[in-house]
Amino acid sequence: MVTKTEQIRQRVDALEQRFNDLLLGHSFAQQQIGFIKTFDIQYGKPLKQRTLLEVEQAAHSQRQKQSSEKLQFNAKVSTKLHAIIENAINEQLHNADNLYSEVLGIQDAVPTILDILGAKAASVGRLEPLVNDLSWLGRELVTLVNLPQYRQERANRGVKIDTPALAIRYLGLDNLRLTIPTYAMRHWLPHSTEPFSLLKRKLRESAMSRAIAAYELAQLQGLNPYSAYIAALFLDLGRVALTRLYLRLFQQIWQRKVTLARDEGNKRLHDALIAIEPDPLYLRNLFVERSLEITRSLVEKMGFRYIGLNALLDDFALVEASEQSGLAQVLVHASCYSQYLMLHEHQLIEDDERTLWFNYVGLQSDHVQHLEKTNLHNLALQIDG
Known about the structure:
18 helices
């Protein structure tokens, strides 16, 4: 017999799954909930339908049969294709080095910089040579400090910042602790997530809102806000890696099968393959089942010495809140609130579900009120100029 606690846990799991559905598209999330939309509603006096002749009826039945057989064949082809893709994914997921270097393209200088920022002896001087080795990061930081809101006061003094070395000095350590991990996470996102056109943007927004929420909650409770921020930001590393890996392998294996079917003159198989696209349900299931595991593997590979992210993510994975550290509970609360926000924005969560979810994770009302007043979309940088 299922207990009340287990029932609540199942409902919370369903809400978290709904969030993963939403990442892959609003309509897909609606379909999973079971929304039914009615199209082509005709108003006015309906026209009488002409009785079909026997020959037309036979032809219509044949078309329906052919259509059904075609759909069944396409489904079988898709299942076989995804079985091959799944084997390839499992093989690559066991290779942490490949995920780290080839799939995400994480350069060793990035975790080194993040680790320095977490150390008590952090200094801008230690960061400069590492930032200079990362051209993309240098460009981001120079662009940031030259935004109009930060440039005007300097312009009055004739100060021009056009190198990464000057940019990191201008920003200072506190701002770099927020900006550098943010730019790193954005750098690792896929360039394209088609056919899931909004997935890249939603992953970016989700990571940002969760990280800022975690930073705020950690500060309220006197915990390490930098550790909370970076851990919350990197919780999506698994989703990012799985997205990159699935879309890459789908394209490679699909293209090989299409070419083979064409060369063999198998038109039926060729046509079925052409009709197949990446499956949102398959990717959603990867997110739910493997995302946290992959995140923990990637963070462990980063080898942090001063930021205890490995232990923090292990705590976060625990089901019982009583066994979690304070920072792990901050991650749980920040994740819950940021997921709720996105679902609420798309009208995919009810008030009673919100209450149940917040109560289940122990998100206090005063913390909710604080987050409601906080801008979770943009960093609140304090730059003196």
